[in-house]
Write a structure and sequence with these properties.
InterPro entries: NLP_P60_dom, Papain-like_cys_pep_sf, Peptidase_C40, SH3-like_bac-type, SH3_16. It comes from Saccharicrinis fermentans DSM 9555 = JCM 21142. Residues 1-65 form the SH3b domain. One of its GO terms (molecular function) is cysteine-type peptidase activity. The protein has 259 residues and is mainly β. It has two domains: 2-123, SH3 Domains (SH3 type barrels); 135-255, endopeptidase fold (from Nostoc punctiforme). It is 12% helix and 41% strand. The strands form six sheets. A six-stranded antiparallel barrel has the order 16-17-18-19-20-21. A four-stranded antiparallel β-sheet has the order 1-4-5-6. 36% of the residues are buried.
Length: 259
Amino acid sequence: MNGSISVYSFIPVRKEPSEASELVTQILFGETFVVLEKDKKWARIKMDFDGYEGWIDAKLIFSMAETEYELWKNTDAWMVSTPKINIVKDGSGTTITIPAGSRIVFNGHDRNSFSIGKNDYFISGQIPSHKELGIREVATSLLHTPYLWGGRSYFGIDCSGLSQIVFKINGTRIPRDAYQQMELGTNVSFVEEARIGDLAFFDNEDGHIVHVGICLGSGKIIHAHGEVRVDSLDHQGIFNHDTNKYSHKLRVIKRIIPA
């Protein structure tokens, strides 16, 4: 298995080796993965962050030497916590916009430049402050991001991608899909007891988990539904004030981050 890294804003990961296949997730800039199998067109990969598997365009693979791969895989890297920043590839001068959740391992104490393979990069403009941002601050910074099935970035995001990226930036690793995330944490008995950062899960008529959102407290929830938006949450579910209807039926609220 070859260690590789995303050197793009994101790499689309598909369910099957076909451009017509559904998008299941994205590999953000600086996230590492291994190649499980490969032909001329497609490669089946496994992400190091959450173990997710899928197919990517083989041309997007950037293989790394083992020592560099282990460095990027295991280092507590600097994390993009704002919706997006720009980096510049030295030599070509190409500007790449990378989204929240992207990872950078800087060159020593230089907090502006880094290298991947033989390519050097630097941050365009002032590097964003690396102050600790809470769940609410990170989540609300992504308001109005369009919904995209399989997305986990500023350019388009789905419900479980939103919760995963917000938690990632806050130092907590959770799985990719909503039904997997529901297996974590402890139950919150009443909606009124929900705190900022608790995850609320919603099911369909068959009892399958189909949606997740992040509780903001005071009966509010932020979630990706059409776009990243804030709606009301009660014991029945999510109430959409635009339609004056409930959009999702509440199954359970889980506390992932202990008090």
